[in-house]
Write a structure and sequence with these properties.
Elements: H1 6-30, H2 34-62, H3 67-79, H4 82-102, H5 109-117, H6 121-148, H7 154-162, H8 165-169, H9 180-205
Helix pairs in contact: 1-2, 1-4, 2-3, 3-9, 6-9
């Protein structure tokens, strides 16, 4: 059943993960049941581990590292790197919204300072630079893992860096990726990284002006 409905199971787990985070905020800040809210946070972490376990199980059964495993790996890398910061942002957003609904202030002085820093051009520039460096590090490591499965040596990898004709061919046989699934995921990640580098990099080179 897992092999047949692997994508459906993965999507269901992702939806349950999002629901767990929303219920965490609801029980913690709206219903003020902090102990029970921790159960939803724990369930979110268990769902992430379950996704990884399913990806490993499918790999052991099929013997192939394809798109399914790549997608799960990317989601797990995101969750335990940039996802932590995004969770903190979501937590502050829920406290701001729920606090407004209840007519109370759920944000701390530190939270208010963080919100103010988001509007500071210098802080935006530094944060964008950190993001670019972090995304680049994860991107290089991730692509290195994918390429190592489809090439024989570092020299072979450098040959693909020098000649990018494989990127336009649309055939994984011409690329440094081991199969079509890895090729599709790898190329998509390259495109996303390039767009993010241009977009976020613009804030590093041209930070927004401070509003009076």
């Amino acid at each position: 059943m897992i092999l047949t409905y692997q994508w459906e199971i993965f999507i269901t787990l992702e939806i349950l993960s999002l629901i767990s985070l929303l219920l965490f905020g609801l029980f913690r800040y709206f219903l003020e049941k902090k102990q029970m809210s921790l159960l939803f946070l724990l369930s979110f972490l268990l769902l992430l581990l379950l996704e990884g376990a399913i990806g490993f199980y499918v790999y052991k059964q099929t013997g192939e590292f394809d798109t399914f495993q790549v997608v799960i790996l990317i989601f797990l890398l995101y969750a335990f790197t940039f996802g932590i910061n995004d969770f903190k942002n979501l937590d502050r957003w829920m406290r701001r919204k729920i606090g407004h609904m209840r007519g109370v202030n759920l944000l701390t002085e530190k939270d208010l300072q963080i919100e103010a820093n988001k509007k500071d051009p210098k802080k935006i520039q530094i944060k964008s630079l950190v993001w670019v460096i972090g995304h680049t590090f994860v991107f290089v490591i991730g692509q290195f893992i994918l390429w190592s499965m489809g090439t024989d040596s570092l020299q072979d990898m450098f040959s693909y860096i020098k000649d990018l004709s494989w990127f336009e061919s649309g055939q994984y046989e011409d690329s440094p990726y081991a199969n079509e699934g890895m090729y599709g995921a790898g190329v998509l990640w390259i495109v996303i990284y390039a767009i993010d580098l241009i977009w976020t990099g613009s804030y590093v080179l041209f930070p927004p002006k401070k509003k009076s």
